[in-house]
Amino acid sequence: MKSSVKEDAPPLTEEDLAALHAPAVPREPLLRARGVTLQYNTPEYMLTATYRVSFDIGRGDRLVLLGPSGCGKSTLLKAIGGHIHPAEGEILLDGKVITRPGIDRGMVFQEFDQLLPWKTALENIVFAIRNTRRTTKAEAVNEAQVLLKKINLGGFEHSYPHSLSGGMKQRVAIARCLAVHSAIILMDEPFASLDALTRRKMQEDLLALWSESRFTMLFVTHSIEEALILGSRVIILSPRPGRVTAEFDIDITAHNELDNPALIRLRERISRILLGDAPEYSI
Amino acid sequence: MQTPPAQIFPLHPADRGLNSGAPEPLPPAAEKISAARRIFRISPVRKGLLLAVLAIFWQVYAAALGNELVLPTFANTVAAFFRSCMEGELTNNILNSLKILCVAYGMGLVLAGLLTTLAVTTRLGTDLLELCTGMFNLLPAIALLPLALLWFGLGYASIIFVMVHSVIWPLALNIYAGFTGVSPTLRMVGRGYGLSGAGFIFRILVPAALPHILTGLKIGWAFSWRTLIAAELVFGTNSGGGGIGWFIFEKKNQLEIAELFSGLMAIIIIGVLVENLFFKTLENRTIRKWGMKL
């Protein structure tokens, strides 16, 4: 990034665009959504959550789905998880159509009740490992302990979820996903219920984890800032029915430097897109 | 409209009128509570004292009444309790009752489990469960005794029939309420691990619904215990095997009223033991420890 700082010039320069859209090597997509329409019924209406949404996720991508509340991002994530079936189109993982939930897709939810309350932090991870892979108990425990240390919860192996803070629970949930060795990790606003400071720390730690193991990640959020911090690519969805309105590659090595001028301009551009589509949208 | 700029004055403690003059004596940080008060704070101690007062009242009143056929004294009742326990008459009857209870409770548990499994896996099963619990939960078990006599004759089978009826509906209702109350997130977590069928039910639904299941187990136990005693009273005369209800009935016929009271005492003691030892311990080791208590 060598463009000069022009705070009063929101439109992206050619240079910015070149830097932002720099898919270095064309990647073989790991996950493909092709024309996915998702619908669900409420007592009075049949709602269309997304309409013919298509996108690809390459291996090691950090794709962020960004959009206002009710644009079908969570529904889309559940469809990739295999919990909902598309009314139209298909979702392929490694070339195979997703029809039901499976261990190749790990999910982290926004809700704090996603950990099994009857198992300690360690047991939650061990349970995930033992249910999805063939290992001995001792190996699973070992691996879980290493993971807990990695997420800075070394002393909390034997704590039950109810005694952990919100941030700690989300850490365990992420560790549990990593333990399963899923092909892709789906995150449904995992930090949305955290306070601002914890959220910032969690974002940094998630990126640190990613640079260590380079897992493929699909992250759903309605915060532009979070999208820019975490994403290597950002897809913007319109309000219901959700459609892809824009897509940005953020190929910046110092990804979490929000004061990067190109990112500042990108942020303004994204907020204009979102504000134009949804006047009630607020960050 | 101009607001004056904020002014910040660093205050010296002395300026605030604090810490001036002689230092105020501070109370000690921790003060020892007297032994008597500490002991009186323990709930079982207080309840034990109340129990002793009630027993003394009983003893004094019964002694003043002086009619062992109406109200034997507390001391005589306790003596009768130990005597019939020693002779084995009461203990045998208790064991008989508990044996039937275990059989009927176990059968009720299995049937309630099957019914709720059916209910969570199929929609017709759901309807069936809701319909059955809606109707039969309102039917007192004792009201089925005449029918049980007609179908199964006098004996254990009839008692077990009415007891299973008393266990199964409240238990199924609670297990089902627990299963349907399991959060969608936990369900998705379980499905995400590839769990389905029995694995899903036993590894996700059952522990997640345990608070409700334990409530159901407690209600089922209370219903079946009461039903058992009542059923033994009604036709213990011919079933031959006995039981606490039968013991009480017999003692009334033999005008051994202190023994009758000792039978009532045994019912209370067993009830207290099961509820406070068994279920409390189970709760403490599971849902309380997990922070899931309702």
Notes on the protein architecture:
The complex is a heterodimer of chains A (283) and B (294). In chain A, helix 3 (121-132) crosses helix 4 (137-150). In chain A, the strands form 2 sheets. Chain A has a 6-stranded mixed sheet with strand order 6-7-8-3-9-10, sandwiched between helices. Chain A has a 4-stranded antiparallel sheet with strand order 2-1-4-5, covered by helices on one side. The two termini of chain A are 27 Å apart. The relative contact order of chain A is 0.19. Chain A has 283 residues and is an alpha/beta fold. Chain A has helices spanning 14-20, 73-81, 121-132, 137-150, 166-180, 196-213, 224-230, 261-277, and strands at 29-41, 46-58, 62-66, 88-93, 96-97, 105-108, 184-188, 216-221, 233-237, 244-249. Chain B has 294 residues and is an all-alpha fold. Chain B has one domain: MetI-like (MetI-like fold), CATH 1.10.3720.10. Chain B is 73% helix and 0% strand. In chain B, helix 4 (89-121) packs antiparallel against helix 5 (123-136), helix 4 packs across helix 7 (156-180) and helix 6 packs across helix 7. Chain B is flat, with a radius of gyration of 29 Å. Chain B starts with 34 loop residues before the first helix and ends in a 6-residue tail after the last helix. The chains are: A alpha/beta (283), B mainly alpha (294). Chain A binds chain B through residues 78, 81-83, 100-103, 105-107, 109, 111, 113-114, 116-118, 127-128, 131-132, 160-163, 180, and chain B through 183, 185-186, 188-189, 191-195, 203-204, 207-208, 210, 286, 289-292.
The helicity of chain A comes to: 25-40%
Q: Kindly report the oligomeric state of this protein.
A: heterodimer
Q: Could you state the order of secondary-structure elements of chain B as H and E?
A: HHHHHHHHHHHH
What gross morphology of chain B would you assign?
Answer: flat
Q: Specify the CATH architecture of chain B.
A: Orthogonal Bundle
Instruction: Please bin the fraction of helical residues of chain B.
Output: over 70%
And the CATH topology of chain B? MetI-like fold
Give start-end ranges of low-pLDDT stretches of chain B: none
Q: What gap, in angstroms, lies between the N and C termini of chain A?
A: 27 Å
